[in-house]
Amino acid sequence: MNTVGRAQHSEPTFTLYGRIAAKYAGYIGRPYADLHLSLIIDDAYNGITVIDGQPTFGEAGLHNLLRIRTNIYTNELPGGVIVKIPLDPPAGMSRETFARELVIRATNFASYVSPYRPPAKLRGDKMNPGEYNSSSYLAALLRSVMGYVPEVHVTGYQTPGWEQPMPLHFFKGEALR
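-> structure tokens emitted (177 positions)
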């Protein structure tokens, strides 16, 4: 039976949305264009929540220029999506718990601390230790909740910061390796 009550208590779904990183700058990557990944949490009760990492500009003062920060917004999907990758919670974790933990960890992330770096030399090299970008942010967030980084391979595109073990990130004092 399709009722409002049933829809409001439906379990959340999780999808990684990939689009070209930094609009046109993502096409500079070699041998393939770079993808920026965003996590979409969708359920009928809470609506749509989008989580990703973004570089800072002048919004937090010049001393915080080009740092990584959490970006969370609701009820609006990113545009220019090239690929959608479904994501499931780790074994033994409910969908509701997974959604709640992702949002809690994202809001507790120490924004404006770690430097933001584009992929090394923008030539398709892997991220170097200590370099952070929007994809490595999301991979670290997922690792903090799932205990591992899910494999993400999109033919013809790069996911910089996703291909190797993640650099150290801090979520409310908790070091993630």
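Helices lie at 4-8, 95-108, 134-146.
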